[in-house]
Each structure stands twice: as C-alpha cells, then as structure tokens.
Write a structure and sequence with these properties.
- A five-stranded parallel β-sheet has the order 2-1-3-4-5, with helices on both faces.
- Helix 4 links the parallel strand 3 and strand 4.
- The protein contains seven helices and five strands; from the N terminus they run E-H-E-H-H-E-H-E-H-H-H-E.
- It has one domain: Cobalamin-binding domain (Rossmann fold, 3-Layer(aba) Sandwich).
- The C terminus is likely disordered.
- Helices cover about 40% and strands about 15% of the residues.
- It is an alpha/beta fold.
C-alpha cells in the first residue's frame, strides 16, 4: 500500500513553521509506525514553499491514499488538490486532516449545500473523535 502525505503548496502567513513542521512530522511518524510494511511518502509543500508540481509528481504514482494536511488558510488549496487528485488518480482515497477540517468541517463536508457538487466526488473522509489518536491527533486510515 502506498500512502502520500502532503500539505498544499500555499505560502505561509507566519514565521513559526517549526510548530507546523512538528505536527506534520508527528503524523508521518505515526503512519510509518502504524503501517511499517507500506510505503509512506511525505511532502510538506506548504511548509517549505515547494511548487505544486512537486505534489503532482506524487499523484502520478497513483497512491492508494492521499492524506492532505491542511491548515485553515490552506482549505481552498486542499480542496483543489483533492479535485486534481480525482482527475489524475481516480482510485486514490482522499483524506483531509489538520486545523482546516477541524475548525471548518462544513467546508469539506460532501453534503454541504453550496459545495456538494464539487466535494461529493472527492470521497473525503474526515477524522471523527473515535478515529483520532490521543497521542498524535492523526486519523485512522479507515474511511466510511
């Protein structure tokens, strides 16, 4: 199984990226420990200012799962990245995690009336309280 963990390529608005990097790295570390036999690729594009084409390279490998780690100001870019993944790799399961879906879950909700047509095709899986680890706040890889 191949799991790709990315943050969207969006410029950061603050200079305290070490907090965000630690949270992103903790999730990647959790996944590597939880799925030791699987291939876990990570690209903190939003944290390091990587161009979007770097993320597209990962999508071209057609991973089994794409985990998008999105901060609130990256929510629109995360949604667009999910839509791009649907076009490039339609069989990839897409999960979104981070402050974006935590604070504005309705933006990612496939049943939200204003976004239903665009989000329904994404097959989003939002972490529920029962699927969040108390140590790493990382969602389980089981989607409903």
């Amino acid at each position: 199984m191949q799991i790709v963990v990315v943050s969207p390529s969006v410029q950061r608005f603050d200079a305290t990226t070490h907090y965000w990097q630690a949270e992103f790295a903790a999730c990647v570390s959790y996944l590597r420990a939880r799925f030791p036999r699987d291939q876990i690729q990570s690209e903190p594009a939003g944290l390091i200012g990587a161009p979007g084409r770097i993320v597209v390279r990962h999508l071209l490998t057609q991973p089994n799962f794409l985990l998008i780690w999105a901060r609130v100001w990256e929510s629109q870019a995360a949604l667009e990245l999910g839509q791009l993944c649907r076009e490039v790799s339609p069989k990839t399961r897409i999960l979104v995690w981070g402050d974006g879906p935590l604070f504005i879950p309705q933006y990612f909700d496939r049943n939200h009336s204003t976004r239903a047509s665009s989000v329904a095709m994404l097959n989003w899986c939002l972490p529920t309280p029962s699927s969040v680890s108390s140590q790493g706040n990382c969602p389980s890889m089981e989607c409903s």
